[in-house]
## 1
Amino acid sequence: MKALFIGGTGTISAAISRQVLELGWELYLLNRGNRNNEISAREQHGKLVEINCDIRTDSVETIHRKLKSASGGLVFDVAADFIAFTPEHVQKDFSIFESLCKQYVFISSASAYQKPLSSYLITESTPLANPYWEYSRNKIACEEFLMAMYRNKGFPITIVRPSHTYDERSVPLGVHGNKGSWQVVKRMIEGKPVIIHGDGTSLWTMTHNSDFASAFIGLMGNIHATGEAVQITSDETLDWNQIYRAIADALNVELNAVHISSEFLANNGPYDFTGSLIGDKANSVVFDNTKLKRLVPGFCAKVRFDQGIRQSIAHVLSHKECQTEDPEFDAWCDQIINNT
């Protein structure tokens, strides 16, 4: 299998990159080369080829030339773009890959599903509509363009919709600042109160990136996935109180939680909680992965959240580069908590 990943070193894509190399595939990473060493160091049986290029700024002709040179002019079995966020991005991808791949995979988002939800149970047929978050609306527009290219020109697309996927490099949370989750973890360690949106009882799903990768690889080169949209999540459902308690338990500290309505948070601060909460995490969701399991027989998410979060906590605590402080967010938390 000859796979091309645009990006390939993020939370989702790094786990997939490592697993396809373990399977002995040929993996071509097209990116700016800033973090490729993390993948190279773990390469086992496969072949890794790095193509240093900026898909957003380099011309289509330049990218074509580099891809053909790296691959010997052969067509890729799969091309997956992990950093496409707007219709302009996928339109350029189409012009690049129309004749260069047998399957093009677009990473969309489960946040694209309609808000407010008409049912807590989410399937791929749940309508797409999110008036609260531009990120989600852009993902919907990307999906619409790609489906049109599939129907009208036979472009072999597969759309994948992740929900909240995490890895060892950061702690997944509902409310955090622009510099990531470390400041909330630090507050927990120091015994300071942390904010949980709403009353903490809305339902959510956390998916470990190793589980996501296993499912994703099952869709790669899968002829039954052509023209399909498929969500990939764990089957484990938690509420936000359980999520924060699991994090506190992994830190071996008592959870000091303050519950504040999502609407209040969205209206009282410099952070985009209208999109990330009202348009996403404040909604109760349970994912029905029947379609995924039909396309990838035998797939089952294996990493329970309380187990996966212990791995994340251990890694973050032992790696200073994962501990980016955010004094502005810390001060905002104190102000919001003291005034409610």
Note: The longest helix spans residues 134-153.
## 2
Amino acid sequence: MIIHLSKGVGAEEASKLAEKAKAFHIHKGEQQILITSSSVKEVPDFLKGKTDESWVFDNDMQLASKAYIKGTREVTIGNVTIGGDTKNTLLIGGPCSVESESQIRSAAEILKNMGLTTLRGGCYKPRTSPYSFQGLGSEGLQLLVKMREEYGLSVITEVRDATHVDEVIEFSDVVQIGAKAMYDQGILRACAKIKKPVLLKRGFGTTLQEFVQAAEFILSGGNENVILCERGIRTFETKTRFTLDLCGVAYLQEYTNLPVILDPSHALGYAYGVTSLAKACTAMGVDGLIIETHENPKVAKSDASQQLTYDEFAQLYAETSKVAAAVGYKIV
């Protein structure tokens, strides 16, 4: 249950009421909000005289529900806003991993020259094998900061675990929580305390409800800037890396108030079909795409098979721009 307390209830009183109700307390401007488990179906008696409005839910997808906020929340990344009524599809590009200054600089230059605004690059890599390239860590973060300063791009990078979450929060413009870290309570709670946008990726064995409930950890801590990212789920199919769940995306668009971004690179796992998938995603009116591109994918230190060349990325941009225009959106 979500309870909006009456205007006369201040933050200090609301905090005490939250403690008594065993509820989360969020203060949004002058509005004091309490959130309890969805198992609570009625406003407690001691709150009835102090309640302005309340919402009852069948499950713990509450703050993210369109039953609570009817439209899609707006999230601003740098000078670009997605969600709401913007009709923007944010195209995020860059390599799977930051490998060197010359490599990440080439990606930044491509994005800048195309008029795009957001650079991705992994610094702490949650690899399946301990023998694979694990990322440059702090050195990679500093290179992303350098690209932001020189090219005016927003940067997004992934948190591998809670040991370096504060460092990623400090230096990135968007904090990415990857599929393997989606259940990490330390990361979720740290991201709940900030106001920076958080891109939450769906785990490859995660139900839609589990996915949205992970977002609720961040929302219930006070950070409203949450973006959902579908990146493929594990099915019986073995010819592709994962299966991009566009049915799930339709559900998220219908029932949640959070912007939705798609990652066709990780879903397919091979470069040959990424552009086709990106066009399909764009046709659904999604809020963004995250695409892996590398100066020479054949020598990439991670996810070589799925990264596009710069020419292929430029072609993807051209083709998705046409699709976006056809459904009333704009690639930004």
Note: Residues 97 and 121 are 5 Å apart (CA to CA).
## 3
Amino acid sequence: MTKRSELFSSVRTTLPPSNRISQTTHAGLWLDKYIQNHEREDTTSRRKLVEEVTALPEPKIYKAFYEDWKKRLKDFGAQTREAEVKGRMIVGLGSESVLETSITLHHTYGVPYIPGSALKGLAASYTDKRLGDSWKKGSSAYKAVFGDTNSAGYITFFDALYIPGSGHKGQILYPDVITVHHQKYYQEENNASPSDWDSPNPVPFLSATGKYLIALTAPDIKEDNRDEWLKKVFEILGYALKEMGIGAKTSSGYGRMKLEEKFDLNSPDIQDALRLKEEIDKMPDAEVSRRMQSSYFPRWRDMPSKEAKRIVAMAIIEKVQKAGVEKTIGLQPWYKAILQSVG
């Protein structure tokens, strides 16, 4: 009977050497199918595999596919915005992989992307947790956008594809590491307890950078209301990506993104709103409870345009939440008016 080690050794001899990576090498296949060492616990081999994948260039043919995708989205009536990763992003970390960690890569081209289901889930979570009672799960607004167990929502979230050439300094994927300090304890081996003399176990993984094209459409909403609904959902996504992040390890700062904002920057109202937003963002947290109602609520209330008021309202809500004073002022009429304006 052939031993497992002998089987893997014979397989490895038929594979091309690792120095044959080229412009056409598929990152996903190289990551999941290339067998360099049969020992799963061999950290050195896994780290080398991660480094090889991060060195792969962007496929030349991908740009043509991306441009065709943009054209098809436009033909379908979808609206698009670009979103840029602020640091690193990991979507699909827990999927099955030879590395024990994974990352979501395009099946055909091997570049990272964000599934539409992940974007929809993030936006739904943000509205339920951050936008007040009118957007709670089960509300009419929530069901209109995201649906429920009985019906689908009216908004379609497309996969967000990587924008060619937008990786940090030309690099799309980066090597990263998770260090597990008490492996036997987490694996519940022989009732082991965590101790100071446990050996750390570094686990290599991949993270992504770059810009991604987010696309939404609402074919079943009447045309005269469609733009307002899509505008609202893009706004929700923008704040969700900025504040909560998408994918894994968001508590460590991964997955934060900045969504492109589309305003008429020549409008005096928008210019005033952006200046006011900047003031609010810079306000010390300790002064929020004292100054927000007296200084900024009247200025928000007197703003002439709905779009300008929305910019300032979201800035106020974000600042109140960041300062940790939402519970103390959440029932005050002026703050309820702010929440209702974005509902």
Note: The chain has 13 helices and eight strands.
